[in-house]
Fold this sequence. Notes:
Structural class: alpha/beta
Domain DUF985: 431-570
Distance between the termini: 22 Å
Pfam family, one: NUP
Protein name: Purine nucleoside permease
Helix content: 25-40%
Radius of gyration: 26 Å
Region (Disordered): 201-222
InterPro entries: Cupin_DUF985, Nucleoside_phosphorylase_sf, Pur_nuclsid_perm, RmlC-like_jellyroll, RmlC_Cupin_sf
Number of strands: 30
Number of helices: 17
Largest sheet: 13 strands, mixed
Shape: globular
Strand content: 15-25%
Amino acid sequence: MPVFLSNGKTMLKILSNSVLSLSSVFFLSVLISGCQSPTIAQQTTSEALETSAQTQPLEIKVVVVTMFEIGEDDDDKPGEFQMWKEGQNLNTRYPFPMSHHDIYVNEDTGVMGIVTGMGTAKAAAAIMALGLDPRFDLTHAYWLVAGIAGVDPQDASIGSAVWANWLIDGDLAHEIDGREIPDDWKSGYFPLFSVEPIQASSEASSEKGSEDNAQPSGKPVQAMNGEAYQLNTKLTKWAYELSKDTALSDYPAMYELREKYLNYPNARKRPFVLIGDHMAAATFWHGKLLNEWANDWSQYWSNGQANFVTSGMEDTGSYQSMIYLDNANKVDKSRFMVLRAASNYAMQPDSLTAAENLAMESGENGYAGMQSALESAYNVGSVVVNDIVANWSTYKDALPYEASKVAPDEDTLNELITPTTEPVDAKLSAEELIKSLNLTGHVEGGFYRQTFKADHRPMLSTAHGDRVNMTSIYYLLSAKSPVGHFHMNRSDIMHYFHVGDPITYYLLNQDGSLETHVLGPDPTKGHEMQMVVKGGTWKASKISTTGDYGYGLIGEAVAPGFEYEDMQLAEQDELVSTFPEHSALIKTLTR
C-alpha cells in the first residue's frame, strides 16, 4: 500500500501551481525521496539521464519487482520490498521520479529492487519507465515479481509460495449490475465482446484441473486485449524445481485460521511451494462466489489451461510493458517470472460469511499469513536470484534450463575431466537435513520440529496455566537463516549439540550481565555440547554463514513444556532501554 511523505502534498501543490523546468521537477522529486538513507548514486536523475549517452549503463542481472512497502525501507514493519533490500544488500539508490519509488541496486551483484505501487496502471508505468531508463542495461536481465496474494483454499494454504505459468486479467470485461441480471445468469460480469456470462458450473469449477472444467466446446478463445498471458513455462518449472524444498515459516495464528477450512485439505497444510496461476484485478475481491468466478474466468481465457490459485492487482500490467519493451529489444520477456506468496485466503471458510471473514482478516492484526507470506516470497525467490547471480557467466546468454546445452570453456572442461584426489564430502546439505527431518520455519528464526510432548503424564500447574512436564524439539540454524533472534522463555531449556558448525549463544541475565557460549562439536576448542538456559533469560543465537557445513543442528528439552504464550520475542527499543550497554548486540540480533 502506498505511503506518502509528510511534505509530499505540499510539494505536489507547488508543482501544480507553478510552471517549472524539467530539471526543477527532477530536483524536487529527489528532495521528496531524500529522507531515505542508503548510499545514493552521485548524480541527480536529470543529470544522469542527460549524460547517460556518454557513460556505460550498469548491467543488471536480476530485477526484483515488488508492489508496496508499508513505511520506511529499513528497520520497521516490512512490506514486500524491505526484506529484499536488506537481504540482497541493495545499498545504492538511484532517484526515479518518473515512477512510484526510487530504485535500489547492489552494484556488486547486479541485483536491482523496485517498488511499482499498487494496481495494474502503476505497475505498467513503472516497468515501462525502468525499461527505457538509459542508466541500466536490462537486455539480459531476469525479472522476478515477488509479492503477496490471496489464495484459493482448494489449492494451497496461507504462507505458501506459488510460481505462475499464466497471468489472467480480471478487469477487462462487460458488466451488468447484479440486481438487473436475468434469473439464469450466475453473475452480471462476462467477457469482452460476449453477451452473457461464462456458463461453467460451480461444480465444475470446484474440480480443479479436471477435463470437464476445460474451455467450453467451440472455437478457441483468443485473448487479444490483454485478458491473459502465458509466461515461459520452462522457466517457471526450472524456478519451481530449484526452490520447491525451501522451508517456509509457520506461525500459531496461521494454524488457527487453517483449521477453520475443514473441507479444504490443501488449505490445512503447512506452507509449501507449488505451481499455480495468477489473476490480476484492480478491485480487491473476496468470497466463495467470486472465487468460483475467478476459476471459471481463468479457465475461459486460457482455453482450459490455467488453474486459478492466487489473486493480486498488478502483474498483467507489468507483463504488458515487458511485451512492448521486448519488441523494442530493451528486455527479454522470456525471462519474466511471477512468484506470489499467500497472505490470506480468497474466500471464507464454511463457518463464516464472506463479509465476516473479510472483516476479521482486515482488522487490527491484519492477515494471519502476512508475515509468513513476506518471508516466503523472499526465502523462495532469493534461491532463484542467488542461483542466477552465481551462474551469470552461463545464464546471461542461455536460459537456465538450456544451460546444460552450452559447451563449457576450456578451463572448466579440463577441471571436469581431471581426476581429483580430494575425498568425497558426504556431509548432508542444510536443505537435505531440513527436508529429511521435516523441519519448518520458527518465529524466532531458523527451523524446528517438535519431537516429543509428555502428554502421557499428569499436567503441571504453573502460574500461567497447566503445562506438560517436558517437550523437545530439533532446532537448526543455517547460512540462509543464521540468527535466532532475542527472545525469552518462562521455562528452563536444556540444549544438546548434534551436528554441524558451532552456534554462538548470547544470554542477557536479569542483572544486566552478558554470557556468551559456543555450542559445538569440539570440546578441545572450548565448545560446549550441552548448555542450560534458565527461564527468564533473554537468549539469541547466531551461526557463521561461511562454515564447513552451512548449518548447526541441536536438540532442546523444555521443562515445563513449551507453549507459545510462554515465549516473548524481543522488541528492539524495549530491550535496548533495559540493557543499554548491550545496544549494538541487541540491534544486530533482534528483528
